[in-house]
Amino acid sequence: MRILIAAAGSRGDIAPYTGLGAALRRAGHDVALATTGAFAPLVQAAGLEFRALPADPAGRGAGRRELLRAAAAFVTDLGQGFADATAEGADLLLLSTTTAPLGWHLAEATGIPSLGVYLQPTAPTGDFPPVVTGAGSLGRLGNRMAGRFALRMADRVYTRAVTELRQRLGLPPLSPSAMRRRRERADWPVLHGFSTALVPRPADWRPGLEVVGNWWPHHDPAARLPPRLEDFLRSGPRPVLITFGSMAAGEGERLSEIAVRALRRAGLRGILQTGLAAESDDVRTIGDVPHALLFPRLAAVVHHAGAGTTAAALRAAVPAVTVPVTADQPFWARRLAAIGAAPDPVPFAELTAERLADALGRAVRQPEYTEAAARGALHMAAEDGAGHTLKAVEQLALQ
User: pTM, whole model, 2 decimals?
Assistant: First the structure.
């Protein structure tokens, strides 16, 4: 079967699909991953066909109205690029949160079946508010109402994109919200690639929505950590990794100073990554390395609580200190704290060396955090997100 996975966003929004795609390829399917050109090497390294989607333009305005206008322009371009990628051939579409509102129309026009493969929960539920808002719980009724409102706002962003895409495909007019309701009434299947250790499936979700476990980013099984890093790991007590992903852009000097001061104050060795830099006997700076190789060697991970880093730290049975910035990061940070695998989050805007040192000291030296992380890791080890997805794909192929 020719399977086309379509995803857009940052590295964390793409990397899990390389592991999923590689698993499907090993099962005998031809797999292509459509995403932006920056991730072509990531896709090809996993042995997958790369198909190009338009990039999200930089330099958006700071105001809410400007952000919405820029997002609408981007998804309009994305819809046209997705149509081009689909025209290259596919027997099944696997759609991410961002590409699903476009893929539904392509599926209608072409007759190609589709399946949702989401990295975040988006369906309204009383269990928690919309993850992208960063808000705390509003109560069960309030959470559901906020969830429905968030979907309506997302539909507004896709209005122009859907109008132009349906015109191109020769389909009659249909609004994004009407198509969403149509998919919901049909119990369109969505598999969520995160662990029930962090987010159990809400009981008030409709049929067809499942939580299957993580899809882990592909990495070469022959890969090894750089010798210099390996030497550092072996030269003393387990260090702490401090990484903020793309959130460190433009603030590397300030964040590096905070990180080093916090490590000194807490009496810990450290590794800095992604935009941070410092070198001394007890601090090293590294580039990109596979989480699966490094994280089990650490005492703790300080991170921005992106979905992928959150899952990777828990999988490694390592406690975390979360410094969420925006979007779904506060949600994942709260989930780690709720299961006891991290202290309460330190919001990025309130980050100081003193607060970071205090949280690190607790995460590393109070055993309950490591014990909770170990319980989460054991739970995750029993999940098989890629295997569950393969079964769903094969069931669709029989229909």
Answer: 0.93
